[in-house]
Write a structure and sequence with these properties.
The protein has six helices and seven strands. With 154 residues, it is α+β, with helices and mostly antiparallel strands. The strands form three sheets. A three-stranded antiparallel β-sheet has the order 2-1-3, with no helix packed on it. Strands 4-5 form a two-stranded antiparallel sheet. A two-stranded antiparallel ribbon has the order 6-7. α5 runs antiparallel to α6. The two termini are 53 Å apart.
């Protein structure tokens, strides 16, 4: 069995044939985990010295599990910032919405914000334009800084 690495020393694959990578090294029984090794200065280096293969496999599996959970949490957090227009407007109190719609009669920027909201399919409260619009409402006195934070973070 051979471990194959690219020019940067990153693991590519393992095969029974020599020469499938920029670097190829023979690997004995139980030492076939490419994730465990890296090529440094043309030499195969064990990235987990002192661990048995079984310990490495358990540690690697735990690392992969934690990374997958973090990725899932990040995806869920990103998804929770995208919502329907109705869900977004439900974040405002009625008196806040009334003040915003009243301001739109004389403030073109408020009218533009509301028109963009009407034309959008969904609302992403993490989008820079959304954040800027809500901050503009704060500067105009239509929302408090605290309420703006609540609207953008819930």
């Amino acid at each position: 069995m051979y471990l194959h690495f690219d020019e940067e020393g990153q693991f590519l694959c393992k095969t029974s044939e020599q020469g499938d990578g920029f670097y190829s090294f023979p690997a004995g029984d139980g030492r076939e985990l490419g994730e465990r090794f890296k090529v440094v200065n043309g030499e195969l280096e064990d990235q987990a010295p002192g661990l048995s293969d079984e310990e490495f496999i358990l540690a690697f599996a735990e690392t992969q599990r934690v990374a997958a959970e973090a990725a899932a949490a990040e995806a869920a957090a990103a998804q929770s910032k995208v919502m329907s227009k109705l869900k977004f407007t439900e974040r405002f109190a009625l008196d806040e919405l009334a003040a915003i719609y009243t301001a739109a009669k004389t403030e073109v920027l408020v009218e533009v914000f509301l028109d963009k909201l009407k034309l959008s399919e969904v609302v992403d409260v993490s989008h820079p334009d959304m954040i800027a619009g809500i901050q503009a409402f704060v500067q105009m006195g239509l929302l408090t800084e605290e309420r703006a934070g609540e609207i953008l973070s819930r």
